Amino acid sequence: MLAESNERFEMEHDTRATPDDPRLEAIIAALRTVYDPEIPVNLYDMGLIYAIDAVGDDRIAIDMTLTAPGCPVAGILPGQVAQAVESVDGVGKCDVRLVWDPPWSQERMSDEARLELGMM
């Protein structure tokens, strides 16, 4: 399993993962390239990525949510997340699961996201 190398990821993203996988930094960088077209902050810093897990040698599983269940881009964002993660060296396949529990809240946002959205 994977997790960001600092404790912030585990606190903010409820991951069950460990920080020693060399792909983790690149996976997080890839996730930071995916945006909801209605929000000028990437999905990772919005706190929409709940878990990053290694499943076998080259497969990654992502649990993610959206800001609201009726989000109009619900049909496209999981595919964009998978495509971004699959671009990382050492990742052959990324499975993305859309989850609604726990519900997303603004507390999950990074300080960078809050700053970008004028909340700080």
Question: Can you put this structure into words, describing what you see?
Answer:
The N terminus is likely disordered. It contains four helices and three strands, in the order H-H-E-E-H-E-H. The protein is of the alpha+beta class and 120 residues long. It is globular and about 40 Å long. The chain has a three-stranded mixed sheet, with helices on one face. Helix 3 links the parallel strand 2 and strand 3. The chain has one domain: Fe-S cluster assembly (FSCA) (GMP Synthetase, Chain A, domain 3, 2-Layer Sandwich), CATH 3.30.300.130. The N and C termini lie far apart (33 Å). The longest helix has 10 residues.
Spatial sequence of strands, sheet with the most strands: 1-2-3
What level of helicity do the residues show? Answer: 25-40%
- The global form is globular
Count of separate structural domains? 1
The tally of strands reads: 3
Specify the CATH class: Alpha Beta
The N- and C-terminal alpha carbons lie at a distance of: 33 Å
Order of helices and strands: HHEEHEH
What is the number of helices? 4
Structural class: alpha+beta
CATH homologous superfamily label: Fe-S cluster assembly (FSCA)
Notable characteristics:
alpha+beta; 3-stranded mixed beta sheet; 3 strands; single chain; GMP Synthetase, Chain A, domain 3; globular; 120 residues; 16% strand
Write the layout of secondary structure elements.
Layout: H1 7-13, H2 24-31, E1 49-55, E2 59-64, H3 77-86, E3 93-98, H4 111-116
Parallel strand pairs: 2-3
Antiparallel strand pairs: 1-2
